[in-house]
Every structure is written in structure tokens, then in C-alpha cells.
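Hi there,

I know you've been waiting on this one. I reran it after we fixed the sequence typo, so this is the corrected version. Both the input and the resulting structure follow.
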Amino acid sequence: MKRDGTIYRRLAVAVTGLVLLVSAAFAPAPEEAGTIVVDGRTFSANQNCKGDTWKYVADEHTLYLDGFEGMYIDLSTQEEAVIEVTGSNKVTSNLNCPAIMVTGNLQIRGEGTLDVEVTACHSAIYALGGDLLIDHCQLTVKGHGIAEEAAYLLMADDNLTMSGSRISVIDEIDGEGGVAGSLGGDILVGDGTTLMVFSRSKGLASLEGAVRFEGEDTSAEILATESAVYAKSEIAISGTKNVRAESSKPESTAVYCPEGNITISDTLVDICSEGAAMAGKKIEIIGGYIADPFDGEVKEISGMDTVILENTMVKEVHILTGAKPTPTPTPTPSPTPTPTPTPTPQPEVDEGFSVTPRMIVGGVLVIVALCAVAVIVVGKIRGRDE
């Protein structure tokens, strides 16, 4: 019996250990600040590691991608994380999580290209609690499917900066959010960046800060269903090549700054909306003018500046650089003189020979003169005979 009790105790210990092992295997792994995830596999963030098309240098906090094609990347908690791309690279996430994520600041740079695609999350690249910098690289982001949580394909809790890059973003996700969002900082598009955006929801949105476009070679085309450009405190477009913002949702405002100013200086700007073209606490156009509608002007309506034409909010605004030309007055046409009709020539009528009074008087005088001459002649003849 004693031997049987020992066996039972050993068996119980073994079963308990097995249960603990199974429970541990299926329990979620605790998030560790010292790990990174590349292509769905976990590695130490404190040691160099690599795969066929990637390598991670721990001292540099840098992940190098060269021809990489794989699943999501999580660089975990780092103060300054960098992803440097060479060649063509693609990162895909079919889960409810971003394709690329870091807790802290993230910089994406390099001479290569990076394609990012998500199908179940409205965030493709997310700097949680930090800044996101896209620096002199070529980035393409696509999102489609259904997302339950509101987010942005390019998202940062603090500042979101696009510098000297070629960026194309297509947002076809059914859900709240948009293309690029800063939750607590500013959005800057500058240094010659070319930005092409299509969104079924919002375009660029700074929920607490500003959106700024800068740099003479910078251009942006933002086509969105809701607001193309939204910022709480300021929207500034300064000295760029051109900016186009379009919103297709009825009653939406394409460029909207509810608590701050909209400033457009020395830039070609086209704005189109099914609602109002733009609205802000104050709208100022410097070094340019509203070319279409030519008679459109900035006026305050219900505490907000907007562009109106004949007391109606304008849906399309086209702004050119330079001074507004003085309209040339339309000349009043001179009345065409009525031509004088040419008189119709009357045919000559042959009236034959007719005797006028003057002719009668002349004839009488001639007769009288002849008679006088005859009397004189007769008198002379008689004088000779006598």
C-alpha cells in the first residue's frame, strides 16, 4: 500500500507538471522590451540577428531590408528605431495589427522601395508613443478589407513627417480613420516629397496639432471621401509646387481647421468639395489670389472664414501665385450706323419742244427791232426818191 501511495504521488506530480506545461504553451507570451519580431518570428533586440533578406544590428537599433517579402514586423520598445530599405521589399499583415510597428520613434529610409499592405487593420505603419519619419525613400501603402477599430495607415502618436520621399497610399478599408494621422502632434509634408493619396474615409488628419506643406519641389494630391486635410490648430501651405485636395462626401469640407488658421502662401492650390471648399477660424492667402471663381472672396460665416461667391459658399477654389490682375472692362460696342439708302435714279422723260415766257419776250423784242430797222430803211429810201 505504501508503494502504491508513492506511485500515486509521483503520478499526480507528473500530471500537474504536464498541465502547467500545456497552460504555459497556450498562454500569451509576455511582451518583452528586449525582443523584436521579423516575419512573425521573435528575436532578441540586444543581439545581432539576420535572415536571408534582412539583418538587425542591435547597436544601431536598425533593421536592414534587402529584397524582403514577409509578414509583420514589430521592433518593440526602442527610443530610435530605423528601417533601412535596399532593393524591393514588401511587408504584409492579414491580422488585426499593423504590418510595421514600434513603441517609440521610427524612421524609414533608404534608396530602395517598401510596399506595405494590410487587410484587417486600418493601420499599416504605427509609431506608438513616438514620431514616424519617412525619409528620402519610396513607400507604397495599400489597405483593403474591413477594420473594426478607427486608425490611419500611416500613424504616429506624436509627429508624422514625410521628407524627400515618393509616397503613394491607397485606402480602400471599410472603417473609420484614414490615410495619415497624428494623434497628438503635427504632420509635415516637405523637402520635395511627392504624395499621392486616395481614401474612402479621411486623408491627412492631425487630431490635436497642425498640418504643413513646405518646400518648392513638394507636391501633394489628396483625394478623400471625407475631409482631405484636417487639422485642429493650423493648416499651412507654403512655397510648394502644388497641392490638390478633394472631398467627395456631401456636406464635407475638403480643407478644414476648426480651431485655427489656414494660410496659403506662394503656392498653386486646387480645392474641391461637395460641401465647402475650405473653412477655418481665419483664412489668409499671401502671394497669391483666388483665380476661380474670380470674384470669390474670403468672408466670415457663423464664426468661420470660408470662400463665398454672391453669399454662397464655394465648392471649388483655384488659387494662383502672384498679384491678382485688374479685370479688363468690357468695351461698350458702338452702334452700327444705319446706311443711307442710295436714291433710285429716275428715268429721263422726253417732253419734246416747249415755248417758255422768256422765249416769247425775246421773240417780241426781235420783231420790234426788225420793225424799227425796216422803218429806218424805208425812210432812207423815200428820202433818196424825193
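Quick highlight: The longest strand covers residues 73-86.

Best,
R. S.
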